[in-house]
Each structure stands twice: as structure tokens, then as C-alpha cells.
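Shapes recur. One chain:

:::
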Amino acid sequence: DIGFSKDLADPESKRASVFVKKYFHSLCLFSELFNLLNFKNTASYLWLNDKNANQYAVPNYLTFRKLNFRIIAKLKSR
């Protein structure tokens, strides 16, 4: 797993835009990539029984590769 974040309304930043400073207390962007190497990770097994008393293991896998974006904004009140 790997993730990155950027605070666009950092009060100490000299590069924040006028629009962001005017309307937002904070504005953060996040991106996360889960299962970076796309492994088929088996978390556990579900055991099933049939009527002949045979048992079968069905694997429960963790998430496949997933890209996630988030935006968190705190607006200024007028």
C-alpha cells in the first residue's frame, strides 16, 4: 500500500492560490493505492461440507489493486 497527500490551503504556503485562501480553511487531496504489487493475498478459508462429508476450502482474498481518491474541504463561513 502507498499513499500521498497534499494540503492546498496550507496557511504557511506562499504558493496557495487566492481562490483557495478566500473560500477554504483547509483543502486536502489524498490518493491511495492498495495492493500495489497486485498479489492474490489469501486472508482465510471458508470450509464447505457436501453431503458425502467431503470438505472444500474456498479462499477469502484481500482486495485486488484499488486506487482511491479523497478530497477533504473545510469552507469558510461568510
User: Anything to note?
Assistant: Residues 18-23 form the longest helix (6 residues). Residues 2-75 form one domain. The chain has a mean pLDDT of 89. The chain has one helix and five strands.
